[in-house]
Amino acid sequence: TIKKAAPPRAANRRPQIGVLVLGKHRSGTSALTRVLNLLGCALPEALVDPSEGNEMGHWEAASAVILNDQILASAGSSWNDWGPINDDWRASGVREQMIERAAEVIRDHKSLGPLFALKDPRLCRLADLWLEAADLAHVDMRVVLMLRHPGEVAASLESRDLMTAGYGQLLWLRHTLDAEHLSRGRKRAVCRFDRLLQDWQDTIDRVRQGLDLALPRNSPASHAEVEKFLTRDMRHHDARGDTGLGLLGASNWLRRTFEIMQHWSEQGEDPADHAELDRIRAEFDHAYPAFSRLLLSAEFSGEFATGHRLRAQLQEQLAEVSERAQDI
Q: How does residue 242 score in pLDDT terms, banded at 50, 70 and 90?
């Protein structure tokens, strides 16, 4: 008798891993994502172009940014909204449709290799959707919560977008609370921007341990690339040296959220803090309907839009002066 060959054994393939970088604009997410990229987390070729205030690159997948804007718009929101995503949208078929579209973006990332990173500040408010999409795409998505002092973030937003400090702090709180709440249960770590600049190797080691992550390009040659990329002047606003960036007049919500996240970055996540963060988030959500119209009209639509117009006018005037100087 002829013996049939045994069927080939299925290869023990490791699941593809994605690193979801969550943090408010101006929190250092671009710097962290590039460092992870240099150490082996792949990024797609189609990235958002560098811009004024972020000349070294955003390191964001253009497809994810475009989709996130569409997702927020489908929920009647936008990147500069400090309110929660409305419950009706979460219960609607639109959300399910958007999960499938996010899964397609993640499937495209799977072609990059066994390890990739995905970053866009909008992901903070949509983290649950993208994590469900990752499950649908059979990707083991792990999370880094990027932390920067809210006073520094607000000052940076004020400098870049002419946004008032108070409004910037509201956005920081929304993004931080949502990113934390919506990513619970996943392998995750908190990474501080100031520590990344001070001692990036120790900071990345903490991220590696928290995410149980192996970085394939973690070599001396890659370390030299990281050293060349990271510079102290990435941090234009420093809360330690400017009392105006402190939290003395900030709400208890803001102060406690920052204190808890800072503690996690040093000692690891403490589940005992979840209840307090949930209470802060619930109170913050409850306050939104009462204050949103007032703040949107006074803090954003007025001063923010006026500031943009003034900056555009100044840029036009500078261009005219430059042209005249060349003619002389």
A: very low
